[in-house]
Backbone:
């Protein structure tokens, strides 16, 4: 009995992970991937991907979001001059196929539920009895295979998004480092120019002192060389 209870607990935890935790991690990856793009290149905002959790409508939002996300990534890769000759980099085909299978399964589920009231309890049992109805069993096998394929397509699309996010974050880091170095060099050059300007101002004042007879020509020449570092 204790082993059976442990098995039930394991199954419940596994189902909770599949239903709640994995979708959350998946949508979070999509959001962070969009955040790594420039706002001007986006056809979708990062927060919009959470519409996936709206019952029923989320399936259709998700299909539309996959199209928009791949367009956003393509725009950003082109803008940042990142090589993306291979369109499979964005995983659009895998994502869209997964979404279509999910939508198809949803409609099949609605249809199955809608016709259940027209069957008696014994007729429902006969539908899933291999000896009485082999066609129904074959249909269940096909549906199971399609759901398994959909899961693998989801994993492929998810990994593609993670890879795009990694590429964009790496590119953004390089751009930021370049800008920081450029600004630091600009500040350094400006400070050098300001320093030279101050030296020339001091020499000009020193020349005025010489003209007024406060210092000799020899003293002026010595001081001038010191200021210029000669």
Residues:
């Amino acid at each position: 009995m204790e082993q059976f209870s442990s098995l039930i607990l394991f199954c419940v935890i596994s189902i909770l992970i599949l239903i709640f935790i994995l979708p959350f991690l998946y949508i979070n990856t999509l959001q962070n991937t969009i955040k790594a793009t420039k706002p001007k290149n986006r056809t979708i905002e990062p927060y919009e991907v959470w519409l996936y959790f709206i019952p029923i409508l989320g399936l259709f939002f998700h299909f539309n979001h996959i199209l928009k996300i791949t367009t956003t990534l393509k725009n950003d890769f082109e803008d940042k001059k990142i090589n993306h000759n291979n369109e499979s980099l964005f995983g659009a085909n895998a994502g869209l196929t997964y979404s279509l299978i999910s939508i198809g399964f949803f409609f099949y589920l609605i249809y199955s539920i809608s016709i259940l009231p027209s069957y008696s309890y014994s007729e429902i049992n006969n539908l899933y009895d291999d000896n009485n109805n082999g066609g129904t069993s074959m249909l269940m096998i096909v549906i199971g295979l399609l759901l398994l394929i959909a899961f693998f397509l989801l994993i492929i699309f998810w990994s593609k998004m993670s890879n795009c996010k990694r590429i964009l974050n790496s590119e953004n880091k390089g751009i930021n480092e370049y800008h920081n170095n450029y600004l630091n060099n600009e500040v350094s050059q400006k400070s050098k120019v300001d320093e030279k300007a101050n030296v020339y101002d001091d020499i000009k004042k020193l020349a005025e002192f010489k003209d007024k007879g406060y210092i000799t020509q020899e003293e002026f020449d010595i001081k001038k060389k010191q200021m210029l570092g000669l």
Notes: The CA atoms of residues 36 and 170 lie 10 Å apart. The mean pLDDT is 76.
